[in-house]
Design goal:
Elements: E1 11-15, H1 19-31, E2 35-39, H2 42-51, E3 56-60, H3 69-78, E4 85-89, H4 94-102, E5 107-110, H5 115-133, E6 137-140, E7 143-146, E8 151-154, E9 157-159, H6 163-174, E10 180-181, H7 182-189, H8 200-213, E11 221-224, E12 228-231
Parallel strand pairs: 1-2, 1-3, 3-4, 4-5
Antiparallel strand pairs: 6-7, 7-8, 8-9, 10-12, 11-12
Helix pairs in contact: 2-3, 6-8
């Protein structure tokens, strides 16, 4: 199986004492493009989980030694570690699943399992994690755009934007400090893959500049003649 695009830097810790199961998971995830490290007991698992950065942890509930899976999980959560955890267990009753989820697990998969289901659950947890970690607010200088409420303000003053102006500002904020060409804006904001030669970008940028810069001492939206635009809270760019 070829490594999946975009997964090559995703790190997965597998804490599983059954050698065959651990090898099955490790091999499958590596084939899918993940970086995988496996260990066989709770103490080693807790050490690795708490001292290194992981995108996801697959944790067997019944581990040898003093620390079982739920003890490892509780300690991680008490430490403030919010890495997504998929619990694996042969304990399949409703009470067992509820206990695992209430103990801090993000998902619970019973043994025996098929690898495609495990992979699908891992991918779902990673998607949820990426949404949770996504920024809800974009800022440059004293300009703020709230992605949830779709409200914009500068120095606490509300700024009313049309939908296209909002998209334009959001794109510039996501690329603040970078030079953004007209071609980039046409594709990202207007979904054009050709230049209609209408001056639509210049008109919209001018309108946006009036709304976010007029009346303020420091300009944020700058024109680089013959190149494009940039949004930056400094004076090194000529308008």
């Amino acid at each position: 199986m070829a490594a999946a695009s975009g997964r090559s830097n995703l790190r997965c810790l597998v804490i599983e004492d059954e050698t065959e199961t651990a090898g099955y998971i490790q091999g499958g995830l590596r084939d899918a493009g993940y970086v995988v490290v496996a260990c066989a007991d709770g103490a080693d698992g807790l050490h690795l989980a708490s001292t290194q950065t992981w995108d996801i942890i697959i944790l067997d509930r019944m581990l040898p030694g003093k620390l079982d899976g739920l003890a490892v999980l509780k300690t991680l959560r008490d430490l403030g570690n919010d890495t997504p955890v998929l619990i694996l267990s042969a304990l399949a009753s409703l009470d067992d699943r509820v206990r695992g989820l209430r103990g801090g697990g993000d998902d619970y998969l019973t043994k025996p399992f098929a690898f495609p289901e495990l992979l699908a659950r891992v991918e779902a947890l990673l998607r949820r994690s990426s949404l949770r970690d996504a920024p809800t607010e974009l800022r440059v200088g004293d300009l703020k755009l709230d992605l949830r409420t779709r409200k914009v303000q500068r120095a606490g003053k509300p700024i009313a934007l049309q939908p296209r102006e909002f998209r334009l500002l959001e794109y510039l904020l996501r690329h603040q400090g970078q030079v953004v060409t007209r071609t980039m804006l046409l594709q990202a904001v207007w979904d054009y893959h050709f230049d209609p030669q209408t001056g639509v970008i210049d008109v919209q940028v001018s309108r946006l500049r009036q709304k976010i810069d007029k009346g303020f001492d420091q300009p944020l939206l700058h024109t680089l003649r013959g190149i494009g635009y940039t949004l930056a809270a400094n004076d090194e760019f000529a308008r």
